[in-house]
């Protein structure tokens, strides 16, 4: 399959489409006598979030204002859904929302509905939209993002539904876009796109194409700009960051990108996701040696049975996985190890599942995303014969959840009585006067602030501040504490 690189020098048509859309929405705004708005709904992983930040940047450049929240969902002038086909019930969310949008389009025929994301790489979904939802204006897949203004302009010009699902893997460098970053302290920085691994349960290689690594120099210059702009945390993103550079000639590896981000001097450098087959000892050593690299490794195990790992097309054994886990534990002080596990993969026996429980105990995961297997259209495993009955999957899932919850609680309990530096994310959902933050090991902390540090009623915006929190209490999914002092002044 062809991989085409596009950079800023290719974007004359992109710019002229953007200009045409700006004029179109400006005239519409005059006609309606108000500012026009957009609403972007994002489902799924951080790569989808990163794509949405680019799409929001483009929508803003057309002169639209962002609105948020359910109430505004059907009221915005442009509604964009960035879908995910990995998470369960994604299709229910999509088609449920499309039903709701119908009334909104009846009320205002100028309203524009757009759908993109991984679900659009499943032909059945696109066909259903074509047949049953004619009021959807534009459908495109994740590889077409750098063409969004062109596609939207064409759809408006022709007043008809435009479906653009491509078969070419593009890599558009990020200086191509104006990015509307959703967090003022954290910047998401994709370092590569796509995936070559073809795990049999996963749609991503079909939806996002083959692996393409961004140029090392361009990543470094983006990171330097982000540092100058005051971002405290960067998150390096890819479906499998550890295979960065394997498909280009620069000779740079993921370790080089991680070291460069650390050298630039962010308070925190995070990354997501890692595949056990490519994680090098050098990366673990770097995590151990650098104070500003997060002490958190998310490493998807998926199953503890070698037989099931093989059926999943995961090219490692559980013994190799546990070796990495032990290495990480011994090298990275107070590190946290998290994972993904699928329960009830086709053919999973009780013995296979027991091996998963055993591996979970041995690895002692600090947290895990656990999923009940359900077939995803378009994947190899969806056609496997021996699907496990739902009641058995559900009973196994409950057993795994209980074990993992106990482990997570123990991990949180081990922090009680100690003080940690945290990066504050904002007001907590836990209750009035409580803030939420993360430790360097990515533990979620809810904390209060004594009045001598911040007087009651003072609604100072603390997002992005650093502080030292003393941990007082463990919960299954978080830890509670009290701020001792700010550490960034
Ligand atoms: S590594 Fe496997 S699970 Fe992850 S994106 Fe690639 S195919 Fe999907």
Q: Can you tell me the residue ranges where pLDDT is under 50 for at least 5 consecutive residues?
A: none
N-to-C terminal Cα separation, in Å?
Answer: 52 Å
Roughly what fraction of the amino acids lie in strands? 15-25%
CATH top level label of the largest domain? Alpha Beta
The ligands bound in this entry are: iron/sulfur cluster
Shape: globular
Helix content: 25-40%
CATH homologous superfamily grouping of the largest domain: tm_1862 like domain
Q: At the third CATH level, what is the topology name of the largest domain?
A: pyruvate-formate lyase- activating enzyme
SSE-based structural type: alpha/beta
CATH structural architecture of the largest domain? Alpha-Beta Horseshoe
How would you describe what is shown here?
This protein has 489 residues and is of the alpha/beta class. Helix 8 (216-228) packs parallel to helix 9. The chain is built from 14 helices and 21 strands. The protein folds into 3 domains: 3-171, Methylthiotransferase, N-terminal domain (Rossmann fold, 3-Layer(aba) Sandwich), CATH 3.40.50.12160; 178-413, pyruvate-formate lyase- activating enzyme; 419-486, OB fold (Dihydrolipoamide Acetyltransferase, E2P) (Beta Barrel), CATH 2.40.50. The model has no long low-confidence stretch (mean pLDDT 90). The strands form 6 sheets. The protein has a 6-stranded parallel sheet with strand order 3-2-4-5-6-7, sandwiched between helices. The structure holds iron/sulfur cluster. Residues 195, 197-199, 202, 204-205, 239-240, 275 line the site of iron/sulfur cluster (SF4).
């Amino acid at each position: 399959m062809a991989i085409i690189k596009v950079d800023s020098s290719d974007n004359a048509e992109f710019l002229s489409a953007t200009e045409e859309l700006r004029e179109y929405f400006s005239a519409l705004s005059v006609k309606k006598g108000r500012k026009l708005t957009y609403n972007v709904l994002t489902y799924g992983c951080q790569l989808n979030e990163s794509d949405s930040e680019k799409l929001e940047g483009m929508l803003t450049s057309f002169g639209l204002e962002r609105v948020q929240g359910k109430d505004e969902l059907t009221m915005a002038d442009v509604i964009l859904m960035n879908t995910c086909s990995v998470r369960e019930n994604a299709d229910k969310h999509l088609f449920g929302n499309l039903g709701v949008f119908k009334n909104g389009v009846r009320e205002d025929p100028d309203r524009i509905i757009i759908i993109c994301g991984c679900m659009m790489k499943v032909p059945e979904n696109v066909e259903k939209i074509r047949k049953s939802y004619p009021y959807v204006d534009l459908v495109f897949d994740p590889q077409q993002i750098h063409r969004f203004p062109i596609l939207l302009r064409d759809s408006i010009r022709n007043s008809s539904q435009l479906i653009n699902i491509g078969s070419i893997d593009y890599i558009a460098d990020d200086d191509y876009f104006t990015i509307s970053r959703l967090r003022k302290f954290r910047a998401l920085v994709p370092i590569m796109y796509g995936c070559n691994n073809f795990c049999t349960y996963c749609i991503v290689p079909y939806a996002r194409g083959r692996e393409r690594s961004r140029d090392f120099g361009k990543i470094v210059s983006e990171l330097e700009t982000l540092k100058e702009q005051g971002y405290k945390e960067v998150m390096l993103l890819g479906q499998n960051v550890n295979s960065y550079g394997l498909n280009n000639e620069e000779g740079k590896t993921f370790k080089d990108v991680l070291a460069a981000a650390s050298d630039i001097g962010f308070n925190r450098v995070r990354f997501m996701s890692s595949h056990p087959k490519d994680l090098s000892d050098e990366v673990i050593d770097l995590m151990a040696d650098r104070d500003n690299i997060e002490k958190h490794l998310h490493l998807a195990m998926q199953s503890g049975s070698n037989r099931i790992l093989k059926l999943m097309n995961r090219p490692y054994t559980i013994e190799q996985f546990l070796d990495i886990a032990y290495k990480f534990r011994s090298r990275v002080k107070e590190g946290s190890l998290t994972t993904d596990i699928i329960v009830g993969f086709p053919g999973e026996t009780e013995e296979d599942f027991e091996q998963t429980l055993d591996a979970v105990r041995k690895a002692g995961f600090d947290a895990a995303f656990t999923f009940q297997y359900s077939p995803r259209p378009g994947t190899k495993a969806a056609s496997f014969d021996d699907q496990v009955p739902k009641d058995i999957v559900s009973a196994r899932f409950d057993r795994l959840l209980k074990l993992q919850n106990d482990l997570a609680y123990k991990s949180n309990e081990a922090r009680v009585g100690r003080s940690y530096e945290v990066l504050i994310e904002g007001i907590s959902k836990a209750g009035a006067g409580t803030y939420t933050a993360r430790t360097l090991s990515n533990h979620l902390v809810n904390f209060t602030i004594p009045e001598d540090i911040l007087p009651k009623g003072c609604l100072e915006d603390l997002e992005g501040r650093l502080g030292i929190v003393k941990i007082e209490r463990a919960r299954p999914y978080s830890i509670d504490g009290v701020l001792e002092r700010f550490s960034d002044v």
